[in-house]
Amino acid sequence: MQQRRIGNQTVSAIGLGAMPLSTKTDRPSREDAVATVHAALDAGVTLIDTADAYAADESEFGHNESLVAEALASYGGDTSSVLVATKGGHTRRGADWELDGSPAYLRRACEDSLRRLGVDAIGLYQFHRPDPDTPWEESMAGLRQLVDDGLVRLAGISNADIAQIDVARSIVGPALASVQNQFSPGWRFSADELAHCEAHELAFIPWSPFGGVSAAGSLQSTAPAFAEVAGELGVSVYRVTLAWHLAQSEVVVPIPGASRPASIQDSAAAADLQLTPEQLARLDAV
Ligand SMILES: NC(=O)c1ccc[n+]([C@@H]2O[C@H](COP(=O)([O-])OP(=O)(O)OC[C@H]3O[C@@H](n4cnc5c(N)ncnc54)[C@H](OP(=O)(O)O)[C@@H]3O)[C@@H](O)[C@H]2O)c1
């Protein structure tokens, strides 16, 4: 598998987005969910994206992190090079998603994530989303403190604009390794943030790289050129989409979601798919 970098850590060019294992309405059984993570590891995936808030609702907060921890612990092979990237800052009230970006909350959330993941320090801890009730500078100071106190090795931010990325760079400092924003063939509004990440050597992690869980439909309708190239190459439209993501920049590390082994097996193979300049031009023109 092709490798990329997040901060000082080498990771597989294709990661696993673990969210659907917990939030999909028809989510898999625990056994099947663990099998999906194992399939990712078998395929050479060494980046797993999770979050404390990935759960059906408030009552099972931490569901996804516990699942990832269980899957890593029960895997037969070596998991020492796997980067688990989690997030804090989203809360749940019932099934609703809410926010708390205060440093005191982030500290508690991070300590809970450490416990669920069973580690001394979190590989990549991402501030999930700006909280309008907490100044961004305060949230970033809270994130920096987690690094300084050794709870977190690398820090990331998510759903951030260019101004927020720059404030994060100045407050969090060299531990700031990544920006995770929504980006897909049908949602390219973070193209400027991606370019900014490239300029400042930050990894750019596109979330919902296909456009979300109802991805198949949206991929076909928003970007038929992707299906066209997939047909020419005899591979899935998902694989072509991920190869397009990888071609945007060396700093891009997509985290396709999967709730079935077959999905992540197919997606992981995108790291070996080389699109021609002509094909890329057609996909970029969409
Ligand atoms: N930072 C944030 O605010 C934020 C927000 C949303 C998501 N995320 C992260 O981004 C990750 C990815 O986003 P997402 O899960 O929302 O959407 P996505 O990756 O765009 O789409 C996921 C869906 O695509 C299907 N799929 C993936 N690869 C496939 C393949 N090769 N063949 C057929 N089907 C395939 C999966 O189906 P099956 O379920 O059938 O396997 C899955 O449910 C999440 O898991 C999460 O870690 C972050």
Automatic annotation (TrEMBL):
Gene3D superfamilies for this protein: NADP-dependent oxidoreductase domain
Q: One Pfam family name from the record?
A: Aldo_ket_red
Q: Which GO terms describe its cellular component?
A: cytoplasm
Instruction: Give the source's domain of life in one word.
Output: Bacteria
The chain positions of domain NADP-dependent oxidoreductase read 13-286
Q: Keywords of this protein's UniProt record, alphabetized?
A: Oxidoreductase
Cite the InterPro entries for this sequence.
Aldo-Keto_reductase, NAD(P)_OxRdtase_dom_sf, NADP_OxRdtase_dom
Under the heading CDD domains, the entry gives:
AKR_AKR13B1
Record protein name field: Predicted oxidoreductase
What is the species listed in this Swiss-Prot or TrEMBL entry?
A: Geodermatophilus siccatus
